[in-house]
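Notes to self, LacI family transcriptional regulator:
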Amino acid sequence: MDTVTIKDIARALNLSTSTVSRALRGSYEINPETKRLVLEYAERLNYRPNPIALSLKGSSSRAIAVIVPQIANYFFSQAINGIEAIAYNRGYHVIIFQTHESYEREVANVQQALSRKVDGLLISLSSETSDVEHLRELLDRNMPIVQFDRVSTELNTTKVVADNFAGAFAATEHLIKAGRRRIAHLTIPPWISITQERLAGYRAALEQYGLEYDESLVRYGTFGPDEATTMVDDLLAQASPPDAFFTASDRLALGALAALQRRKIAIPQDVSLIGFTNLNVADLLSPSLSTVVQPAQEIGQIAAERLIELIERKQKAAPPTTIIVPSHLSVRESTRRAEE
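result:
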């Protein structure tokens, strides 16, 4: 099958090649209806830009770097899918790095991205990252940067995040309405932005329903192996053990599920369990796992769109802002009402 070109699209739609080219780049100069027609036709014909030819037109590398804590994480793999879908259609290569939750590796990844002369950077911070000077230096050199998911408020960049507060509030509220009163919260290191936002939503729901916030019911993890087992054992050993567990990640939810089942604790009859981020197998577990769903792919798409806008429009790009993408609660068997 012959490769489809911009000229082919222009001829079919009776448009100029320059109009088609700008529409494919998402230019603000092209009206939305024309842009829609061009993009739909290009997708139908499986048009793909030639990044090598594009890079020859200027100093742009037509490549963006994506730095994430771990590709194997379901949220990040879905976010990367969203990033690649946008970048590919706009003629950009995507170079992916993973920090494995290491600050040192994050700094090295940034340097490696620079050495490859990328046009911009998408980053979700590692769990060890508190000092963001390596990223501030890039901003001072006018490198386009967009943060997503785990972000730092110290950096004046666009940030694309899920509504972690609302998601945690909804999860906790759901447990309370199901008759639970001793709701434990298993989470990740306290200095990470998503930890703080989800903890705040959990606390707000308790307060709204007249339940006291009890620090003894909160446990912070370190991404260690099988750490959920230790957390669950510790909490169940309390004089008044929890009757529900709200976990800030599916990794912790799966660990908690396994730990509770090993102890022959019936879910949800004795204890309710709810996760955050929505594993793709959540509905296949036994019992199926209630979870707060983060729109990971949409977050990736928005982050990529904003980064490419920064790259291509420079000073004309929208100023830095925080984009909060709604999350939603998916209720399954693991949080059925206590009396059912």
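- The chain is about 40% helix and 15% strand.
- The chain has three domains: 1-47, 50-160+296-324, 164-294+328-335.
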